[in-house]
Amino acid sequence: MLWRWMYGNGKWAQHVDDLEGFNKSFVSMLRDTAEFNVLSCEETRVAMDGTKKMIFNLGGNDRIETVLIPGPRNRVTVCVSSQVGCAMNCQFCYTGRMGLRRNLTAAQIVEQLVIAQRSCAADMGQVSNVVFMGMGEPLHNIDNVLRAAEIMIDLHGLHISPRKITVSTSGLVPQLRRFCRESSCSLAVSLNATTDEVRNWIMPINRKYNLAALLGALKEELSSKKDFKVLFEYILLAGINDSVEDAHRLIQLVRDIPCKINLITFNPHTEAAFIPTSEQKMLHFRDIIANAGLVVAIRHSRGDDQMAACGQLGQLGLDRAPKLKVPRQFQSVLTQAEDHLSAAAIL
User: Fold this and answer.
1) pTM: predicted TM-score of the whole model, two decimal places
2) Which of 51, 68, 63, 52 is CA-nearest to residue 95?
3) Among 86, 90, 180, 310, which one carries the catalytic annotation?
């Protein structure tokens, strides 16, 4: 009964006083020992496209952000965070510049979805999809992420289909193997490069688990899963990973893995000098992959005018993760990008 009042039947109890049908001694015990609200929403920002960013205060200087994204055909996606900050230090990601401050508990992860359900029920409708693509590397906090996902899919709880819950990773291979074996939810892998040299730079986790190790693990784990496709995410960075050669290498890398590919627009921010690939070049990149028989789509930015888009979440403090040395062949590209951004700022 308590589970249903917390998560099921559209009740989402916020306080012990919201409960009905329980005996007084049980309610009294809950009042003394349990806490219903583990997050406090201090601000909601609404982007021009209707995307909502909710900022939660965890106490002190720790904050996390959750994004509600309305879509076509009554689709509502909630993007949840799994950590305060992130240890992966991906060079294109604003959250990565924060470094890791702490993991979220399963309760704090689930509460993001519960509060989002309450918030969007009136104007957006029911949440249809959940993506673990907010702040943090989900598989770096795998115990709490797995527990939170189980609550989200529970028949008597939030009851979201596991196929509509997607957990994203930058490529922590041991945890990825565990996820594939223990979870029925969907998996996304943030790839973003077709050579180890480039991935070592923009995604330092590749220095520990390179492309061969990551893709080899995926092949092994997916060989025993029926009707399962991994989603590869590929952020296109102008002059870095968007060449025709990159497109052909990507095809060869993933050809033997059941997959879909999402090409993602880079969302600019003050902590990275990259610039987005042009739309014309993105379309050409997509067409090369599609013509090879792979399933590919372009995912356009949502909420970027409120720093709510992919790679834009978080609030920086004085301590920041280091920027890594740029490979020589890309130094001129980054210099041109910085000049472009400086000129745009002046205008």
Assistant:
1) 0.94
2) 63
3) 310
